[in-house]
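Sync notes, pocket subgroup
Present: LS, DG
LS reminded everyone that the earlier model was apo-only. Rerun requested with adenosine-5'-triphosphate included. Inputs:
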Amino acid sequence: MRKIAVINLKGGVGKTTTTLNIAVGLARKNRRVLLVDMDPQANLTGSLFLAGNKTVYDLLINKEHPSDVIINVDEFLDAIIADKKLADAEMIMAGMPSRETILKRSLESIFNYDYVLIDCPPSNGLLNYNSLLYADEAFVPVSTDYLGVVGLRRIVEIIDEINELFDHNVEISTVIPTMYDIRSKICKESLEEIRKGFNGEVVAPIRVNSKLKEAPRSGTSIFDYSKKSRGAKDYSRLVNQILNREEFY
Ligand SMILES: Nc1ncnc2c1ncn2[C@@H]1O[C@H](COP(=O)(O)OP(=O)(O)OP(=O)(O)O)[C@@H](O)[C@H]1O
Ligand SMILES: [Mg+2]
């Protein structure tokens, strides 16, 4: 079971879009996928129109059993949803014992998936510590602009620090350049910088595509919203790359 945190402390770089479309793409290839929305903005939950009585707050704070909070979304796809109450969780967690590993302990009994994908918030707090200390891998979407390059350096440093501090070993297995505009000089230069500056796998970029922006309004993935779009092509290629490397995990 691959446990993957989709993370970047920079906001708006495509974390939620990437988590959602990878998850749906993998599920369509018959991989059992669990989505976890760890962001109080609950954009992942909202983008798929997910609803349920229980949320990740109940898992983390009320110690409810995972089977009581997991909802079924589709064949091969389950989710633990979030709502805005999750914003309070961080403060409550701060007073709890071993506060950085609450998610890890809460999901201890979960092993019947091929992939667990966590949509992380753009902040450096306990929700992200918990996500990283549960995960074995991080996928880092990076916008192809100057601030994206800066953001990548920062998340690499933070993950190093967390690994050292908690004797953990989550690795950035994949950097995913996003918001790529082939006509833009800054996008090209930033992509170069990302490839030069990161010592690991940088996949082909996800191009800017308005269909990706529109899809959440319909509560669907890009594959259902616009199968022939650039966004669908790019995310489908990424899903295939993930599948191709499966044997190494
Ligand atoms: N390749 C793309 N082309 C065009 N728009 C995109 C693309 N990827 C994402 N978007 C849009 O950009 C916005 C930010 O994307 P998204 O919500 O996935 O980022 P995020 O990193 O999860 O943001 P946050 O940090 O707020 O959680 C959204 O409106 C989304 O629909
Ligand atoms: Mg998001």
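DG: Residues 11-17, 39, 41, 43, 122, 178-179, 206, 208-209, 212-213, 216 surround adenosine-5'-triphosphate (ligand 1) (CB under 6 Å).
LS: The radius of gyration is 17 Å.
Action: DG to write up.
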